[in-house]
Records
---
Amino acid sequence: MTKPFLMIAAFFGGTGVMLGAFGAHGLRGRVAEKLLEAFKTGVHYQLVHALALLLVALMIQHWGPRTALVSCGVLFAVGVLLFSGSLYGLALGGPRWLGPVTPLGGTAMIGGWVALFVAALHLPR
């Protein structure tokens, strides 16, 4: 799982920078301030979780594909797609049903952090 998680982390990191630039330069003055803030929140959480996923990949490389670590990586990836993706969609005028998707993504991200905690409990000293 190291390589897929590293690739996803790199994708999230690169697209996070691109989306951040798009939000700062392409959306300012074109969407309501509240929507621009939602877009920025999506970018922020995407970049934070890209770095977290990178660290999970390195942990898997070091300690092996332990269930809690793999679960953590999957939950972080799904969380970014649902949380950040729904915020991007809403900011760009997407359907309102995206609103309830955002907390599902946040819940997945929280689950990823819980899985990381569980993994830490079981790692050797």
Note: The chain has a mean pLDDT of 96.
---
Amino acid sequence: MGVSTQTLRRWEREGKIPSPERTAGGQRRYHVSALGPKKHTSLAQERQTIAYARVSSHDQKDDLERQKQILEMFCAAQGWTYEILSDLGSGMNYRKKALKRLLDDIIEGRVGRLVLTHKDRLLRFGAELVFSICESRGVEIVLINQGNEPSFEEELAQDVLEIITVFSARLYGSRSRKNKALIGKLQGAMEDV
């Protein structure tokens, strides 16, 4: 609708819109049809539901397929017309092809709903920024497996471990490339001899 969450809350208090459903976590869920004129309904129907899946490495391709199946079953069960986008890459890599397309589509107003299996499947760091963009563009975010919210300390420890994991992988990966290049040169020298 192009308004802030505070405006929706004010409209609810003033009785301008019906009271929304509430999730177990206390989040409001509005039915678009109850929020205003038919133009909002038709606009919501024109916008896509995008389901996004991501894994970090080629070793996890089976997990990527499982994520896609879960997203497909969930969206189909809701009766939504949807498209699945997927990436294979680090949660700290912001240059993934499908992620870039997703962000472009959100900014251009082509996405009405974003479905994820878990919050960290979008990005390890920065998901909140993408969620803020979604909120400003009127995109509903659906997390299938929200689980219990971690405490501040648990979240901080997870972030530190993720940073260490990513930098370790990059360090070992660069060493691996150097070692492969060195082995290739040695094999070339052995063939020459």
Note: The radius of gyration is 22 Å.
---
Amino acid sequence: MRILVIEDDEAIRTAVVDTLESEGYETDECDNGEDGITAAVRAGVDLVLLDLVLPGKGGFEVLEELRGSRPTLPVICLTARGEEDDRVRGLKLGADDYVVKPFSARELLARVEAVLRRSAERPTDVDRLELDGRVVDLKRHEVCFDDGRRSELSTRELELLRYLAANPGRAVSRDELLRNVWRVDPRGVETRTIDMHVVRLREKLGDDPSRPSVVLTVRGKGYMFGS
């Protein structure tokens, strides 16, 4: 299991990483929210330990973005905030558990084990798509064709494809994509940007724009994953 620790306090981060690695977990670490989001999407981690007080992008915002891009990824909040309102807010945003500093190594490991046990029954995130004539490796951001050709997906294209693939058989509206992939309020936002990303994504996937089979257009509703 690989665990990502997002914590700006170096001493706490080092202690948490050492504790996890002593129990056999692999770890990645970040000291800010922006890098943490990128690592959570690209590194294929199994659990995130997230401090809520971070420089720049705060922990609540990071949690909300992670729930949009990786809805099944388990997250445990680590924070000095012990107030009930903060705990409730974190849980409502989708945190799986909440550990208030200072905490012992024994308590942290127990909560990690419990969350990983529960999350084993969730649907898994999409990491690899096997399509007709090509394979999409979402961890590596690339499309590999049977004839040896490769194309690289941008982070936004990757998140768009991952979100559609995680919702198979369902038309996803542009507003939903703006909220959960672009992470913006869809009110007053030009949705043409989504259509442009779909065009580029289809091109990189080798998906015939006149008769697409992977990213389908559902007239009047949005887009749907078709394979």
Note: The chain has two domains: 2-119, 128-225.
---
Amino acid sequence: MSTLVTFFSVEGTTAKVAKEFAKTIEADIFEIVPQKPYTAADIKWMNPIARCNREQIGNKDVPVTGKIDNFEQYDKVYIGFPIWYGAQPKVVSTFCKGYDWSGKKVYVFATSGGSGIGKTAEKLKPFVAGAAIADAKLVRNASEIDVL
């Protein structure tokens, strides 16, 4: 079995951390990419009608591009993303719905969190049904991610 580091990043912070971490632990890596890329205006969370706010509040799927081949080969999956409204962005939830998580161990890391890490792992849990999910951890760099 093997390890996968997957991530969603808009401004590059999470991408940098995830890529460095994957290299350090010699894991495969996969970027979660929305079908419609985010613009700077889309992530202006202080604007109540910004796309990020509409998606989080509307609780709708955000279609993703690409698919992980042979997902069943991974027993450990690290998922990284910025915190939006104290949880994972909806694009991450949509991504997770596309796979069978049975028997996997999931580790969550977030690279920003104005609202804090809160109950992020608990909020992600329904989307990774069948997996054992560890508490989420707020990190600033790859060295802060626990290697498990």
Note: The chain has four helices and eight strands.
